């Protein structure tokens, strides 16, 4: 990018760094950062990629660990199938997620963007590295882009875009395996394309989408398209943790001269923080929406500070108030309280998912039916049961009357065998002794047993004669 513009430090108020004065794209040539935070990000990236590409292959009891089939409304989280009947968990999870994201952002700013957002991880830690590897440093990239189309340029550009496309294809495959499951994806790959044309076209469309994003759109996703990024402004306050430039210490800035005693601020105006910035901003202009908190400028500045023998941390994690008051970032009671709330939210969500029942039984008295009188002073009512088996195995089940003398008599079968991943319907009589019935409409309970162990108690009513 044209650093001269930033040198005068005023254009950032008029337009985003990726747009020229004439409204054209300002292509960024980003310098590779080195340092402590970049090393942490490298480690995190390895872990992240293992999880991202490995997760679709993980199965527990033959069930995918995670499947998010939005098209067919089938969701599997932690190897538990979630049905439309579990929608309340999703509703609570959605509300909790919104609260979580808001609280998290108020306290920790764009920590998510810099460290775990897939866009940042893939763009900065995969595609950008490939670009450096093939096309060289920013100066070499600029030379190549501005140079004529000779054999070298064709080879470098061809190789880069082929690798980009291949990785985008891998990402698209993985993305679809989160939706349809890895088994189905393998089946699609093995069988003729004509049998899975729609999915194949989806795969190609997603490949081109990811390729387009990482090869061309790039940082514009973060600076312009991402709604989370756009909402930062309303979630930040002066105590939010940010990647911030310590203007109190850094200004007035000026070049370093080892022969002279330094009487100005610590910023040596080396521009390294700008050169490494993937969104092309100058963090010294203050907090900006375009900053994804990737920490590259922190590493770059620390490196320069170390080189000239000044204290590191001129650009660091801090809050606006912290910088103004000259304080280091600390775990304040406010951060503690918000973090505790975030942990509670996570625990509630985990408990909701963990305690969700695998078998869900609903019993209703058959509509339009009264009681039937049977020999030996017995009465019966007819019931319908809808039993959802949310697991991937057949389950033998037993229904027993609880707290009252009587029996459950299935109609048309002697035993209940719930089919896997399906809604099972059963019809049965509840037969009780007339002396048990003290009112016209009595409450009763039916125990649902799996292998002799009670897994649910369902309440219903029993209709008797007027007493
Ligand atoms: S200003 Fe620093 S933290 Fe923000 S995006 Fe640029 S390099 Fe990353
Ligand atoms: S890297 Fe540090 S010293 Fe260099 S210009 Fe940026 S803030 Fe100033």
Structural notes for this entry:
The protein is of the alpha+beta class and 467 residues long. It folds into 2 domains: 1-60 and 109-325, no CATH class; 359-463, Sandwich (Immunoglobulin-like). It has helices at 3-7, 36-54, 87-108, 111-115, 118-135, 138-146, 151-180, 182-190, 197-217, 220-225, 227-235, 247-250, 272-275, 296-308, 320-325, 333-354, and strands at residues 59-60, 63-64, 66-69, 74-77, 80-82, 242-245, 315-318, 359-365, 372-374, 378-389, 395-402, 406-410, 416-418, 422-433, 441-450, 453-463. Strands 8, 9, 10, 12 and 14 form a 5-stranded antiparallel β-sheet that branches. Strands 13-11-15-16 form a 4-stranded antiparallel β-sheet, with no helix packed on it. The longest helix is centred in the middle third of the chain and has 30 residues, at 151-180. The structure holds iron/sulfur cluster (2 copies). One iron/sulfur cluster binds next to helix 14.
Uncertain residue segments: 1-8
Give a short account of the largest sheet: 5 strands, antiparallel
Distance between the termini: 90 Å
List of distinct ligands in this structure: iron/sulfur cluster
Mean pLDDT: 89
How many individual domains? 2
Structural class: alpha+beta
State the helical fraction: 40-55%
Quick one: how many beta strands? 16
Based on CA atoms alone, the radius of gyration comes out at 32 Å
Beta-strand residue percentage = 15-25%
Count of DSSP H/I helices: 16
Question: Overall 3D geometry?
Answer: elongated
Can you describe this structure in just a few lines?
Helix content is 43%, strand content 20%. It is α+β, with helices and mostly antiparallel strands and 467 residues long. The strands form 5 sheets. Strands 8, 9, 10, 12 and 14 form a 5-stranded antiparallel sheet that branches. It has a 4-stranded antiparallel sheet with strand order 13-11-15-16, with no helix packed on it.
